[in-house]
Amino acid sequence: MSILQEIASAIRVENTGRQELAASILSDATIAANLATPHLWMSLPNRWRAVALVLQLEHRGVLILASSSFSVTSPALEAVRISLGAAPDRGVLETALRSIRSVLSLPHSDTRRALV
Predict the structure, then answer these.
(1) Of the N and C termini of the chain, which has fewer Cβ atoms inside 10 Å?
(2) Separation of alpha carbons 55 and 11, rounded Å
């Protein structure tokens, strides 16, 4: 096996491990993913808007992208893209995924602000 094949194999193994970790932590979520890829798509419950979830998580130090960032049509689906490969290791990824699960368990996504 060449060095490039070894590297590609190691990447596939790591992506699969990260996908499995995400699936276990976000087991109540609707996820679209391929085990070989370093990201996943998560549809949101009716009470959530993608932009609101992105903002809530940003305040907690977790960065994800709303589906509207990838959409050329309107309106975009209420979904988010989670990059599993951006975390430097699985421990950091696990912490971020648990934050996502925690925020999703909140009763609503009201992020309105008032000017006073």
Answers:
(1) C
(2) 30
User: Which of the following CATH numbers is that of domain 3-104: 3.30.1390.20, 3.90.1150.10, 3.30.70.920, 3.30.1490.20?
Assistant: 3.90.1150.10
Q: Which residue has the tokens 């925690």?
A: 102
Tens-place pLDDT, residues 27-74 = 999 999 999 899 999 999 988 999 999 999 999 999 999 998 988 877
- Eight-state DSSP code of residue 12: H
- Model-level pTM? 0.87
Q: Which helix (H) or strand (E) holds 99?
A: helix 90-104
- Tell me if 27 sits within 8 A of 97, measured CB to CB: no
